Amino acid sequence: MQAGVKNIRQYMEADDEIIASIRCTIQITAYKITKPGLLAATSKKLIFTGDSFTGFGFTEIYEYEKVRSFRLKKGLFNQFISMNYQGDAVKFQHLYSSKPEEFANHIASKIKRSAC
After folding, report:
1. I want to staple 84 with a disulfide (CB 3.0 to 4.6 A). Which of 9, 62, 69, 97 is the partner?
2. pLDDT confidence tier of residue 55, bands split at 50, 70 and 90
3. Rounded CA separation 91/84 (Å)
4. CA–CA–CA angle 8, 88, 5 (5° rounding)
C-alpha cells in the first residue's frame, strides 16, 4: 500500500493531509472503467489512484464541493460507496476494510462542510 500512498501524495498540496484511505475498486459508469486501487480522503479532496502493473497510471480527483450525492450502501454480499460527481455515477466497491463506515463518515463530513 506504500506505493499507492506515494502516488496519492503527488496530487496533494503542501497543506493537504491524508485523513483516511481504503483499498477498493472504482467503477465509473459513463466511461465503462473498472480498476482496483487506493482511495484516499484528504483534507481537501478525494483521490483515487489505480494499481499500475504496466506503468500506465490511472488517477481520479474529486473535489468535495462538486460531489452531488454520497452514500455507503449494502449490496448482496458486501458494502459499496455510491457517489454522483458532477452528474457522473461513480461506485467504489470491494472495500477492503473491516470498518468501511468509518471511512465513509470521514468523506461525508468533508462533503457536508464544503457545502456550507
Report:
1. 69
2. low
3. 9
4. 10
Q: Over the range 71-103, which residues count as b (16 or more CB within 10 Å of their CB) and which as e? A: ebeeeeeebbbbbebeeeebbbbbbeeeebeeb
- Quick one: pLDDT at residue 33? 83
CA angle 116–41–19, rounded 5-degree value: 95
**Cell numbers describing residue 36:** 482496483
Under the banding of pLDDT at 50, 70 and 90, the label for residue 51 is confident
Give the pLDDT band (50/70/90) at residue 83.
very high
* pTM for the model: 0.88
113: its cell numbers: 462542510
Q: C-alpha cell of 18?
A: 491524508
What is d(CA 49, CA 57) in angstroms, rounded to the nearest whole number? 7
**How many Cβ atoms are within 10 Å of 54's Cβ, its own excluded?**
5
